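Lay summary. Proteins are chains of building blocks that fold into shapes, and those shapes determine what they do. In this project we predict the shape from the chain. Here is one chain we studied, written as its sequence of building blocks.
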Amino acid sequence: MDLNFERIRNNKLEILRDISVKTFIETFASQNKEENIKQYLDTKMSLANLKEELNNMDSRFYFIILNKTIIGYTKLNFESAQTEKFFIGNAFEVERIYLLSKHARKGYGRKAFENIFQIGKKKGYEKVWLGVWEYNKNAIEFYKHMGFKIFSKHSFLLGDDNQTDLLLKIDI
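And here is the predicted shape, written in a compact code that computers can read:
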């Protein structure tokens, strides 16, 4: 297995958008209204919004690459870029981590988190936190298996649907 992680820069913006849209649709389209998915993709996954996120000095995006093929990506938020402010210690956020569905349950998610933990440690962080939709049972099971613990929840608006995300954390 030749799994690599590549920091994403502006010159890969369209590739980032393509993998973002594809993985979001694979993950959530079957459980949500089409118009809510479309609205989210048109706003959060637009080239303009992704470019703004890429240019945020407190965020980092990485492609997850298997044998020179992009199979997923992750977005990490540090300091002011974090979507919530918690008093859980010296922590950073994994805002997004997605793999193409055909690559799920093959150990690549675990390898991605090993890489994420290393990035955090190098930056001096002690904890990682993330949000996961309460109905994304596969992801919740994976995170718990990795050692994440639920500590809170928050609202996530997908189109006109106010959803609940469970918030999980882990010491690194």
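What the prediction tells us: The chain has a mean pLDDT of 96.
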